[in-house]
Design a protein that fits this description.
Blueprint (H helix, E strand, L loop, with lengths): L26 H24 L4 H13 L10 H12 L6 E5 L8 E3 L6 E5 H7 L9 E3 L15 H12 L2 H8 L7 H11 L5 H4 L4 H12 L14 H12 L6 H19 L11 H5 L11 E2 L5 H16 L6 H9 L2 E2 L9
Amino acid sequence: MFKYCCGCMAVIPNNSRQWTNKKYCSVKCRKTDHRKKKSLTTRSMQKRSNLLQNEEMLYLINQCRKAKTIQILHGHTLDTFVETMSLVRKRPAGDVNLCHISPIKGKGSTGLFHCLNLFYGGSYQNKKFGNAYLSGGLFINNHQLKDQWRVSNEMSNNDILLAIELFLKDIIVDYIKISPVKKSKKANLAMKISETNPSLRFDDLMFWSYYDLNYEWSKVSGQRAYIVDRQKESKYLAYIDELTRFISYKNERAKTLKKLRRILVIGYMALERIAASETYNKYFYVKYEPLINLKYGQAMLRNPSDWPEFKDLMYETAFNVMQGAHLDTSRFSKKVMSYLVFPDRAFTIR
């Protein structure tokens, strides 16, 4: 019979009468393991204290306020919750919003805050689409909503967070252990502003943008606001990335999404060659060069002045398909190709 050390997993030698009670192979190993456990507990406590000042959690709290229920978290496992919060944290470059497939306030239903019901789409396309619904996504019927999980206007951020923890049970505890829960850079600004002007509540200020907080602080403090703009990139890559994410779920629409992604890759290369279109994403070729067909590698717009119309076509189609619209890929491909030419510089491998 063998016993293994709880710290280093080495075999504990059976050389004393106390062998049956031993958990560690040495005093050093016992102290090291206890320090690790204490450190882990301290980090978990710090992360827990950061929740109300964490960007992703504040976004979730705000979504519960909009939906007026905690039940938008219905059906989550630890894996899906981690993926959903990671989606919030890793907002892509470009003018994009996190869009719902099944809307928060649908007809007789409430769209869920779940990675299978969310995608990043252009702000303009999202505003234009509004509260419409085509198909797919995840939702809960309104007759299933319970008063126990209702979110009222009077509830504080902390009240909502406690309700979220109660609803998700152990998921939040496990999420804290494996995910980064960092304090938002907005927290210190919000605290200083609320202390200077008590009429502005800290809870409310945390939902302001960093730009607006900087501007408000510059007014109350008389100091100049310094804001570094994000690098200007188009939202094109966000659409391709979101298609790729949904393809990875391997559902019945994966084949259509793959075809659409290939067409978008060709369209990107054509638009990138026109400076006025401002179609630039520094990671495009890093991520998607393997998808480039050499036959279409030199894609160019037949009429460069058509770039706004062509770009709108690509964005509108990608957005609508992500929202569940049916797409005739053959017909769409022909329409896209009608805008393009492929110079003789394009070569093929024999």
